[in-house]
Each structure stands twice: as structure tokens, then as C-alpha cells.
Design goal:
Number of strands: 3
Number of helices: 5
Strand content: 5-15%
Shape: globular
Structural class: alpha/beta
Helix content: 40-55%
Strand order of the largest sheet: 1-2-3
């Protein structure tokens, strides 16, 4: 496994063999604990410990707290990406950069804020 690449690093650090990505295109409803739990429930042993939830807006505080408790208890990470984050990743690709580095940076930011 080549940990010098972003996908190799994610595979090594989080056993991220497959990364479930769930889209929550909620306009009016809050994205909270239930939606975070649903995304985290896809993280079975064979999948790995990383999932991404794509949303029009950031989830509410209960979602963030629950995401932190999932990590504390199970060492599983659920990242919240907004439309703006996805656009940034597309811009990175257009510039010739690898958007996978955005995912790695997001994991590192999560780990820093969690401590």
C-alpha cells in the first residue's frame, strides 16, 4: 500500500477500502443526528472507517456532536461536505491538482478539532 498517495494514506489510516458517500439534499429540514447515524451505519468492517455526507448546508450541532461520539467510540469518521466543498474539489481537478488531497485535509482537520 503506497501511503505517499492520498488514497493509499486513507486506506492505511482508516482502512478505507470503500468510502460510502451519501447525499442529503435537504432544503428546509435540518440535517441532524439521525442522518449522521444513517451515514455512519454504512461503515461495516469490510468498508473501512470513513464516510462522506454531502449536503446543501452544514448539519446542525447535534449532528456534529454525534459525529464526534462516533469517532470517540468506534474510531469511524463521517465528513460533512457542502456544495461549496464539492465545487472546490472540482476547481482543484480543473487546476490539475488531485481533489483526494481535500479529503485527506478534511480528515486531518476533523482529527485536530476532535482533540
Amino acid at each position: 500500500m503506497d501511503t505517499s498517495t492520498p488514497w493509499g494514506l486513507l486506506r492505511h489510516d482508516l482502512s478505507a477500502r470503500l468510502i460510502p458517500i451519501e447525499f442529503k439534499n435537504y432544503e428546509r429540514d435540518e440535517i441532524g443526528k439521525e442522518e449522521t447515524n444513517q451515514t455512519a451505519s454504512y461503515l461495516k468492517n469490510d468498508m473501512g472507517r470513513l464516510a462522506i455526507m454531502c449536503c446543501n448546508k452544514l448539519p446542525n450541532d447535534s449532528a456534529h456532536r454525534y459525529r464526534n461520539s462516533i469517532f470517540s467510540e468506534y474510531k469511524k469518521i463521517v465528513l460533512f461536505f457542502t456544495t461549496a466543498h464539492l465545487i472546490e474539489m472540482l476547481d482543484m481537478k480543473d487546476r490539475g491538482d488531485d481533489p483526494a488531497y481535500f479529503v485527506v485535509d478534511s480528515v486531518e482537520k476533523f482529527l485536530i478539532q476532535h482533540e
